[in-house]
Amino acid sequence: MPHCECRKTSSKRAGNGFGESLILEKSVLGKERKRISTIGNTADIAAGTGLEQGVLSSLKGVAAFPFRVVLRGLGFSKVKRVCYLVPRAGWSTDWDGYYITSNIAEQFGIKAEISSKSRWLVGQILHHSSLWSFLGLKGDSRHRRNKVVVTVFHGDRSERFPELKNGIEAFLAGLSEVDVLVTSCRLMENRFREWGVPAAKIRCIPLGVDLGRFLPPTLEGKKRLRKEIGIPDDSFCIGSFHKDGNGWDEGLTPKLIKGPDLFLEVINKLRKRVRVFVCLSGPARGYVKNGLEKMGVDYYHRHFDNYYEVASLYHCLDAYLVTSREEGGPKGVLESMASGVPLVSTRVGLAPDVVEQGKNGFLTDIEEVDALAEYLAVLRDDPSKGQDLVNNGLKTIQAYDWSLIAARYYEEVYRPLLDEAGQEI
Hints:
It contains 15 helices and 15 strands. By secondary structure, it is an alpha/beta fold. The strands form 3 sheets. The chain has a 6-stranded parallel beta sheet with strand order 5-4-6-7-8-9, with helices on both faces. It has a 6-stranded parallel beta sheet with strand order 12-11-10-13-14-15, with helices on both faces. The N and C termini lie far apart (57 Å).
């Protein structure tokens, strides 16, 4: 059975002289970039002006650090404008931060970086990349001179997913500490309004996609990749590129919110009609892989250290399948469209905002296994229908390039906060 657990990295570490290391990695443009800013690095804090520089001119290294912190708290500092806080797990939210901060810096000339910590940051816009980032760093963020932004991709106050319910309840209890709440889909925007979040505090801005990286394949390129992977010519190849197992190891127990059990049910129904091959990426896919093996369905799995290398895998697919019960994205909706792959998805996250039923994709209600399998069969039996979805999807996706989405972040989130704080841009 084709199966690959390849891992590779181009990252290298360099000590910073104070504690945390810098991570230097190749960017999508092939240039070195500083991915995680270093909170404890005195060089990073040494950009102060006026009184701060006067007091500290004779101090060097670690000895200056406490004085810098005190002076910053008094307001004597020259600070970064936006600090995008990521979990530093090497997963997709890191890349959200990269695209948002790099684009607003380039387009609007404001300082913006990503970081994994918020302690000692004063007078800045601190943008938490997720609900869990905010809850984990909550005590570090609320200096009176900070503006706090939180992105919450998905949430549910029902008893279906207790951990998510508890997280949402904790977030709502701490809402007074949040200046702006960003969500990526109308479904969550409506939920937050129903839960009592003031409409003026909410911004609905979708996720983006790098249209320079996620591109449709050439016919020759698709044939070559399928041959390299070992996909039989008569197989219908279905893609699923996300994390759907619990934990960060093998993921042998299902993360039901992502619907891996439903995914297997769909594949089991479809395999009775067509020869199926499944292409997987992402960590913790053990539950799905075990299920495919029990069914006797061939699959290929590759997890990339650099998340965006997954772009190449879309080029071997005949369809992309989303069976989630709850989502904020998923990014596969946008990435599959950009890559020229027909999409079949449950109505979760931003999928209903992006997909026009039967025009640029197929949508079903949550847990509608029969309908999901039927739409995949339609794509297998009628390639012209799949090509229509692809052609329309390629038109739709142009509005979701990260450069455009980042500009919305600036205009709708960051600029109003900077104006409110009385800072010049």
